[in-house]
Design goal:
Number of helices: 3
Radius of gyration: 20 Å
Shape: globular
Distance between the termini: 41 Å
Strand content: 35-45%
Helix content: 10-25%
Order of helices and strands: HHEEHEEEEEEE
Number of strands: 9
């Protein structure tokens, strides 16, 4: 038990340290890099320039932009593997009680996992598509990726730390939003968001 508490506090300390160190870089992503190098156009032929532009646009699209700053509340999940409480009467906890924050393209928070254990997450929160669909209503599509603590042997891990990724679909009305996340291991989650901007 003491070993688990030590791992948890070490994970929490590392994640908070990483959050404070990298948030500055993510918050300034709209500013040009001070290390930009100008390329002499005479030395690159047109095909190479076009390929470089295409690759740059592709990676810029995949990278997206930082997700809106928000408070993340509540989460419910459905497990498609047959242990779903809602679909098959299985034993997975699907009321996850998420509490987290998204700030400058990073997300940090905690929730109760499907085994009723406390889990912690930290990572990227990116939007690859955003569209205003009405005066006060917006649709966002993006992804989240990062380390996760609290699953022990249920997920592949190193020192109790696993990695998770999922695609997100969100709809917001004014400051209130609902997010659906699809995690490739057969889990669909839904939760609420209160936008700061």
């Amino acid at each position: 038990m003491q070993n688990i508490n030590l791992k948890f506090f070490l994970f929490l300390f590392c994640m908070l340290s990483m959050f404070s160190l990298v948030k500055t870089a993510f918050c300034q992503e709209k500013t040009p890099s001070p290390n930009s190098v100008s390329i002499n156009n005479a030395t690159i032929d047109r095909n190479e320039k076009q390929n470089e532009k295409t690759n740059s646009n592709m990676w810029r699209t995949i990278w997206g932009k930082k997700s809106r700053d928000a408070l993340l509340l509540g989460m419910w999940s459905v497990h498609l593997k047959g242990s779903s409480e809602f679909l098959s009467g299985g034993g997975s906890n699907e009321q996850n009680n998420l509490f987290g924050i998204q700030y400058c393209g990073l997300a940090l928070g905690t929730f109760m996992n499907s085994h009723d254990d406390r889990a912690w997450f930290f990572g990227l929160a990116r939007e690859v598509y955003s569209r205003k669909i009405a005066d006060d209503t917006r649709l966002d599509i993006g992804y989240k990726f990062g380390p996760l603590y609290g699953y022990e042997d249920d997920l592949p891990n190193i020192g109790g730390i696993s990695f998770a990724a999922g695609g997100t679909f969100g709809i917001s009305w004014k400051k209130i939003g609902v997010d659906i996340m699809i995690i490739p291991v057969g889990i669909i989650t839904g939760g609420f968001r209160i936008n700061f901007d």
